[in-house]
Write a structure and sequence with these properties.
The chain is of the alpha/beta class. It has two domains: 153 residues, Medium-chain alcohol dehydrogenases, catalytic domain (Quinone Oxidoreductase, Chain A, domain 1, Alpha-Beta Complex), CATH 3.90.180.10; 140 residues, 3-Layer(aba) Sandwich (Rossmann fold), CATH 3.40.50.720. Helices cover 30% and strands 26% of the residues. The strands form three sheets. Strands 3, 4, 5, 6, 7, 14 and 15 form a seven-stranded mixed β-sheet that branches. Strand 12, helix 8 and strand 13 form a beta-alpha-beta unit. Helix 3 crosses helix 4. The chain is globular, with a radius of gyration of 20 Å. 47% of the residues are buried. The structure holds NADP nicotinamide-adenine-dinucleotide phosphate (NAP).
Length: 324
């Protein structure tokens, strides 16, 4: 099978031929139809992510496809079932091994590109806003990086949970994408005085921060009493430092949320969340935004789009299986 390989950290990926893998007990092999890219793929390629697979490795965290082979003594959906799966790595290949317990059978009307783009972005925002921050109807939610993969789903889910949503993103085009996802107020992240703009809107109850850097400090200062700040990611490359005295004086909470971590310590929370989200999708309540779909052989171009902040929502790689 063809697969994209990281052979040296920080180096461009190479397209390579690998033997077709055989599933072991508890595993299936998927024929991959679509792979969604994540900022984490860039970090993993560069050796800067919290998970560091041994070299060489095939990146790719989330896929959709069909069950092609089932390992011995394994209970799994029948061969040919359309599924999505979250993986530690390995998705950027024509076929991949996945634990049978992680497969998400797809609603009939869900296309492969939506399915691949679904688990991480929606899963992270739902766990963060619902399970962690307990966002309430009528509260004000600020999303930093609101047109990115996870950010845009936070806008959509926040709106669905009844919040008033303030979206911060760079440039008119990305702000329009956030508005279409339901944002009530738009702030260009390149404009100065984020804190003043937030105060003028009455302050915020919950902050969803996928960016880090100075925007986190401004958001912290604009929080209302009992505000909750979700540290989701540091796309800016700058990890915020939290002044604990301000947390005390304003009764604020800063919360970290690593979606993948739940697979290890409370997988049932993650599974229940994904079930809820797929239910919302099936009834037309969620609409994944994919700014770019590129074929498998154009992966380097797709990674460049993500790196250069030219995408909004998700970037998805499609394979011939998607057309079957
Ligand atoms: N905690 C978790 O479980 C979890 C799950 C998924 C992702 N994440 C993290 O969340 C962050 C976003 O991930 P994603 O997959 O949504 O990425 P993405 O689609 O590339 O979105 C990142 C957004 O960050 C903004 N940004 C600001 N400064 C940037 C910079 N210097 N370089 C690149 N982007 C910058 C960009 O928006 P503008 O151009 O509008 O500023 C971009 O839309 C990453 O740090 C990722 O590791 C965390």
């Amino acid at each position: 099978m063809k697969a994209w390989h990281v052979t040296a950290l920080g180096a461009p990926l190479t397209l390579t031929d690998l033997p077709l893998p055989e599933p072991g007990p508890g595993e299936v092999r998927l024929r991959v139809a679509a792979v969604a890219l994540n900022f984490a793929d860039l970090l993993m390629r560069d050796g800067k992510y919290q998970e560091r697979p041994a070299l060489p490795f095939v990146p790719g965290l989330e896929v959709a496809g069909t069950v092609e082979a089932i390992g011995p003594d394994t209970s799994a959906p029948p061969l040919g079932t359309r599924v999505a799966a979250f993986l530690g790595a390995g998705g950027l290949a024509e076929a991949v091994i996945a634990p049978a317990s992680r497969l998400l059978p797809l609603p009939e009307a869900m296309p492969y590109d939506h399915a691949a783009a679904f688990p991480i972005a929606y899963g992270t925002s739902h766990l963060a806003l619902d399970h962690k921050a307990r966002l309430q109807p009528g509260e004000t939610l600020l999303v930093l990086g609101a047109a990115g993969g996870v950010g845009l789903t936070a806008v959509e889910i926040g709106k669905r949970m009844g919040a008033r949503v303030i979206a911060s993103a760079r440039g008119a085009e990305k702000l329009a994408v956030a508005q279409a996802a339901g944002a009530d107020h738009l702030i260009d992240s390149d404009a100065p005085e984020l804190k003043a703009a937030l105060k003028a809107l009455g302050g915020v109850d919950v902050v969803y921060d996928a960016v880090g850097g100075p925007a986190f400090d401004a958001a912290l200062s604009a929080c209302k009493p009992e505000g909750r700040l979700l540290a989701i990611g540091f796309a800016s490359g700058q990890v915020p430092q939290v002044p604990a005295n301000l947390l005390l004086v304003k009764n604020l909470s800063v919360m970290g949320l690593y979606w993948g971590g739940y697979l290890r310590f409370r997988p049932e929370v993650l599974t229940a969340s994904l079930r809820t989200l797929l239910g919302w999708y099936a009834t037309g309540g969620l609409c994944p935004h994919i700014s770019h779909r590129l074929p498998f052989d154009r992966l380097p171009e797709a990674l460049d789009l993500l790196q250069a902040r030219k995408s909004s929502g998700k970037v998805v790689i499609t394979l011939p299986e998607a057309r079957r």
